[in-house]
């Protein structure tokens, strides 16, 4: 018997998927549970993730596990697309894209039209690096600890168009925000067109005073771009309060969301001066140079509609837990980790002060020993770390105090290997 797919059946199918997602969400819903307090609450949060105790993730600066309800929603909605790839069926995802965009925009203090849903921080950074107009001899000021996509990417643009890139070095533990400000301000000149920095370093954990740097740039008529890869999902962001012109971040890191989804915030009034990198269609948005907001950077061609839709569910979970509570918990765990690592004989690269650091914690390890230490942390202690900057450990809300103590125990067992 031939299958007859009508608009009604498509909507019924979408309704069934929504009901499934809603039911599963109700089971996992942190907000609806009889919310315990203290560590019991965070144990409940930990159970929203499927990782085993033998492979505890502590490398948020690279990749976080996704909330299981979000991963399940991606899988379910992917089947909806594969079941019926017609325009008729896929039209429903235009609305979910708008809903996801609106939710993440609200959480970072932006208007929906100021946010483009891109694929990751790298793509967002590239829009700015390649999209701004320059003249030969123009200068770009960057932090030497920027991620490669906000560092070497500027070198490539400079080589192509005769620009000058100036790198700023900052002390390992700055004396104050004012000292950092002065270091950046003194290299800015009349030729400086862009100040571009990563708010929290992925190799040291040092956090720059983004709001003060953005204010300095604004006062001098300099475009300010922030790489927020280590900020979105861990800090209670307010991009309007920061005052930057643009900010890029990835959902697969601290936001604990679907993979290959990111955000590019562009402050209203700035988008017209940025050329789009990719010319294509996304849902009902197409490239129009007259489009005067961030949506013109969302024309990326065929998207993973399921992941874009599930981004909204991740935002809902953040709202249930509350961004400020997430930030406080990460600060608590990172502080506990730093204290324990010091007691274990390790030398911190990351400043101890929470005001000068985020959730990224790095200790010194001799280059020759870094891989052996990271491997041992995983195989012997079940902690997934990174060799970036030495040994990098990044705790998040799915980590428990027991995980932190296990990581400290692992480092303590390798005192001779981590000794510099």
UniProtKB/TrEMBL annotation:
Q: Which UniProt keywords apply?
A: Plasmid, Pyridoxal phosphate
Classify the source by domain of life. Answer: Bacteria
The record's Pfam families line, in alphabetical order, gives:
Aminotran_5
Which residues does the UniProt record annotate as the domain Aminotransferase class V? 90-390
**Is Transmembrane helix one of the keywords?**
no
User: Is Translocase one of the keywords UniProt gives this record?
Assistant: no
Protein name, per record: Aminotransferase class V domain-containing protein
Q: Which organism is it from?
A: Azospirillum brasilense
């Amino acid at each position: 018997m031939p299958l007859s797919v009508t608009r009604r059946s498509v909507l019924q199918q979408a309704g069934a998927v929504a009901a499934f997602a809603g039911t599963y969400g109700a089971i996992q819903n942190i907000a609806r549970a009889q919310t315990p307090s203290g560590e019991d609450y965070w144990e409940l949060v930990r159970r929203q993730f499927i990782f085993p105790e033998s492979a505890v993730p502590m490398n948020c600066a690279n990749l976080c596990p996704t909330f299981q309800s979000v991963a399940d929603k991606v899988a379910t909605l992917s089947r909806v697309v594969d079941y019926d790839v017609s325009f008729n069926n896929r039209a429903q995802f235009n609305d979910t894209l708008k809903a996801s965009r609106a939710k993440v925009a609200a959480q970072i203090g932006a208007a929906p039209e100021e946010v483009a849903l891109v694929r990751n921080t790298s793509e967002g950074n590239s829009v700015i690096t390649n999209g701004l107009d320059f003249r030969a001899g123009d200068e770009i000021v960057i932090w030497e600890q920027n991620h490669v996509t906000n560092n070497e990417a500027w070198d490539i643009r400079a080589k192509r168009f005769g620009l000058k890139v100036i790198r700023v070095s900052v002390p390992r533990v700055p004396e104050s925000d004012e000292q950092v400000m002065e270091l950046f301000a003194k290299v800015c000149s009349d030729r400086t067109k862009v100040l571009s920095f990563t708010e929290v370093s992925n190799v040291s954990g040092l956090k720059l005073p983004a709001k003060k740097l953005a204010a300095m740039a604004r006062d001098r008529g300099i475009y300010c771009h922030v790489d927020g890869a280590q900020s979105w999902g861990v800090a209670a962001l307010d991009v309007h309060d920061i005052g930057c012109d643009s900010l890029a971040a990835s959902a697969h890191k601290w936001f604990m969301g679907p993979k290959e989804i990111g955000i590019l915030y562009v402050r209203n009034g700035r988008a017209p001066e940025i050329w789009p990198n990719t010319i294509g269609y996304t849902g009902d948005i197409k490239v129009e140079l007259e489009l005067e907001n961030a949506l013109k950077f969302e024309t990326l061609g065929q998207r993973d509609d399921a992941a874009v839709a599930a981004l909204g569910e991740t935002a809902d979970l953040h709202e249930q837990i509350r961004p400020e509570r997430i930030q406080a918990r990460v600060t608590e765990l990172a502080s506990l980790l730093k204290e324990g690592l010091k007691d274990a004989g390790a030398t911190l690269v990351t400043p101890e002060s929470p005001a000068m650091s985020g959730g990224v914690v790095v200790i010194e390890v001799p280059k020759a020993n870094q891989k052996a230490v990271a491997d041992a942390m995983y195989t012997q202690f079940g902690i997934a770390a990174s060799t970036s900057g030495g040994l990098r450990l990044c705790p998040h809300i799915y980590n428990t105090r027991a995980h932190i103590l296990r990581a400290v125990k692992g480092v303590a067992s390798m005192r001779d290997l981590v000794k510099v």
